[in-house]
Write a structure and sequence with these properties.
Rossmann fold, 25% strand, globular, alpha/beta, 9 strands, two-stranded antiparallel sheet, 199 residues
Amino acid sequence: MKISPDKIALGITDDQVPLGSHLIHFWRTDGEFERGIRFLELGIGDDSQYCVLFGHNEANQRVLEILRMRGCDLTRILHQGRLVILPRESSASETLAKIEAAFSDALAKGATAIRHLGNLGMGQAPLPARGADEVVELESGATALALRYPCVIVCMYDINTVSGRLVLDGGFGTHPLAVCRGALRQNPYYATEDKTVAA
């Protein structure tokens, strides 16, 4: 599937981001979390865009509450199928299959762009299946998935609760782009599979 070269407004910063992108947004404060929600809010405000929300239950509920406070008609967009909510409850392969199904359905309904907002943090429930290994596999798969659809995948990491390993391997290691110091930047720590370390 060939994706459009178009860009969409990121919302977290003033940047435009190309469709087919997968990026990381680390958050520590309430303000940084709420800034991340702006990415999804812009998609909800455009009838030609479709949105997917993924994460642990507490994070998903917090996102929905903020969107409601900002005046988003969630009842309408949920009914239209323009917002799909996926809970964190299965393996990486199952989750990727659900995300791809949501993307395919959005395209079938006429989406010009798809916004996916994922939240990684330690909710009440533990990480599914193999824990951190599962997260790294999911993130690696999301980078490949993004290239096949007219989408932007934003992953918000709660650095107050995630482990150092997840920050390094899941966050920096699998996202080609990162929000850094108020701007969207190429992530120099992104580890593509063909990179090798000299002995």
